[in-house]
Amino acid sequence: MSERLRIENLYKVFAKDPTEALQILRGGGTKDSVFGKLGQVVGLDGVSLSVPSGAMYMIMGLSGSGKSTLARCVNRLNEPSAGRILLDGQDIVPLSEKALREVRRTRMSMVFQHFALLPNKRVIENVEFGLKLRGVAPAQRRKRAEEILSVVGLARWGYHLPHELSGGMRQRVGLARALATDADILIMDEAFSALDPLIRTEMQDELLRLQRTLNKTILFITHDFQEALKLGTRIAIMSEGKLVREGTPQSIVLEPGSDYVAAFTREVDRARLFDAHSVMKAPTVLWRGPNGIVVGGAGGGLLLDQQEHVVAGLGEAQIATLKQTGELPAGRGPYLCVPEGARLVDVARSYRSDHAMGVVDDSGKLVGLLGAEQILARIANLPSPGEAA
């Protein structure tokens, strides 16, 4: 996956002259030590990260952790004190005001927490706004706005004023306005946190639906770990202006790395977070012959064709016969196959103790085997069989 955004050693000190503060931070000092000595507030302390193209990249942390400061530095609403911000390899930190305005008009869009809609303009005019600033012709921008309103399910509301819409619908207008510009990066700063819980859930689902269609690169700022887990392909967790943990949602829950990060993970519904791929075991080949391949698993085994697709199950008795004679028995046993991306809550519902269970990729090729022990251990946060406690 190609890299869309790279942040290298980014610092933000809220001061006219941050030179001494930067020296303290680079020498191992902290946000608190800078404030104690200089009275200057540190927003970012040497943050580096990489955002792949098409990723839903979550930046999260508690209040004051630096997550919103980071978002505002990326589009230079806040000027970084030091460091680089590379957009498709181009450092946007030294850009002139004119060049920066062009980046904001064409390459970055932002969705704010409180909608920021123009109250006296109709919905469709709000959606057109970024295109109007870009100088797009009226007929062209109206056509684009109508298309995007249809995508977000608001086609019938284009000629209403914002106050006639519900909070969730207004936030959807804000999202449509950002999407209309077809920018390279969409920055969402606590975009759903002001919404009621039910509407917030609906907007999260809507964003996931849109992402499956549009495959945008999204930098999403949130203080809600459950939201980060639900939406994110990768998560960066911040504290005191530093990036303290970065990785996939599953890797962060498995290996928090600190008490601060672990505190976010305690109430996670692991059955809905982890997938079959995360707990499967590699297949053990028991037999290979002209009629296929036999691999062993809990509850028996699986017979594969030469392309490693599952064609039948083998019960424990058939496996025992195979080991004794070296020949493929005529009998067949039951089996189940699940996609490697299947969540454990769904895998557990389909599990049968007398069935061998295989994990397959998108092409149907067997990539692993599953047993009850691995499924239950991951859900209960216990070491999987064979793992160290």
From TrEMBL:
Transmembrane segments: none annotated. Its EC number is 7.6.2.9. It catalyses: a quaternary ammonium(out) + ATP + H2O = a quaternary ammonium(in) + ADP + phosphate + H(+). It holds the Pfam family ABC_tran. PROSITE patterns: ABC_TRANSPORTER_1 (PS00211), ABC_TRANSPORTER_2 (PS50893). Residues 5-265 form the ABC transporter domain. One of its GO terms (biological process) is response to osmotic stress. SUPFAM superfamilies: P-loop containing nucleoside triphosphate hydrolases. Keywords: ATP-binding, Nucleotide-binding, Transport. InterPro entries: AAA+_ATPase (IPR003593), ABC_osmolyte_uptake_ATP-bind (IPR051921), ABC_transporter-like_ATP-bd (IPR003439), ABC_transporter-like_CS (IPR017871), P-loop_NTPase (IPR027417). One of its GO terms (molecular function) is ATP hydrolysis activity. The complex is probably composed of two ATP-binding proteins (TmoW), two transmembrane proteins (TmoV) and a solute-binding protein (TmoX). PANTHER family: GLYCINE BETAINE/PROLINE BETAINE TRANSPORT SYSTEM ATP-BINDING PROTEIN PROV, GLYCINE BETAINE_PROLINE BETAINE TRANSPORT SYSTEM ATP-BINDING PROTEIN PROV. Belongs to the ABC transporter superfamily. This is Trimethylamine N-oxide transport system ATP-binding protein TmoW. It comes from Bosea spartocytisi.
